[in-house]
# Entry
Amino acid sequence: MKTTTLKLSTVLIVLVFMTGILGFSSEARAQSVEPTTIESSKDFEGTIDAIKKAVSEGGMMVLSELNQGKILSMTGLQIKAHSFFIGNPQVGKKAFSANPSVGVVIPVRVNVYQKDGSTYVNYFKPSDLMVSYGQDVKMIGKKLDVKLAGMMKMLSK
Amino acid sequence: MSKLKNALCCILQPHLSVHYSIINVMERKKTQLGIFLIALLLAGVAPILFPVAQAGIASLSDLAVQFLIPSVILVVALIILAYASGHKEAGKQISNGLLAGMIGTIGLEIVRITGFKLGGMPGDMPKLLGVLLLDQFAQGPDLFSNVAGWSYHFWNGAAFGIIFSVLAGKGGIKPGILFDVLVGIGFMVSPVTRALGIGMFGLQFKDGYQFILTVTLAHIAFGSILGWILLRLNRNAPNILIRLKKSFSERTV
# Structure
């Protein structure tokens, strides 16, 4: 009887310990994916125009735009924020052929926002978001990282 | 023989003319009732489209092309036809409702905008209607979408004005308020509040009372203006129940 109680308590302690480790590791992993943020050399509107130009020069396309500031103005909130969905049909074809579930990550979302009078551009590195995918998709993510970094160089101060 | 024929004619002719005039009056009343029922159906189209769209059944822009625009054209055509075919009373009652509804919407808007500025509403409804109508939610509102949204909002007011005018006839302020508070309740339990993320009656918005208060006050303003105007414009107009009763009772004579 005593042995059974001891065994049970040991199992419980191990379980609690394992849960803690798992919780900590998932938190640590969540924290590791942070957006890349750059401060733009231009004002908000200028940055919007510059992104469109940079996307085109970088061999990508603006697939869709979300004027978050204007949308939120309907709720009474006055902010300047604009999201771009950037992609490339060829890159999309390769990525979706490799894994159709990749649509949760691409097209890449680039966000422009104004804070304390300065304009910032931020995005999550595609390779960071594609870590759970196979090597072929990860490679696409790395290529997209390079393209995005090139575009951001054109905008940064 | 010819004398007898002449005598019979003299006796029957007045009765026949009375008989034909009764039939004529009955026909006119039936046609008028038909006009009112068609007006009710057409006016009911616009207000139902926004909740239908928010329920995810179809997009508001598609519904506008397929139902809203045709219903607006048909309401205007019905008023013109009513006047042109000698049913001036019906045409007037419908157009009075339309006018009173539009003016009532100004009252509703004054309360709604004030409520929105004070934080009693989660969003600017006409602007939201505009971006949904023009299918440009991602771009946000602009001048064209705002014009479209405001037009639709005012048409909704006009539609409720027509419905109230046809149902209540001369109406009154109290029936007007009652009617429009019911409309407001309908709005607050519709899929719109769920889609806005504030739950039924807007209970999940702020402290739970701001939305109900703003919507109810706005609809009281609309209803009282609507009722007051129609009390003056539809002076001798009976309500739909009296019309139906008259129409059926005369049919059985």
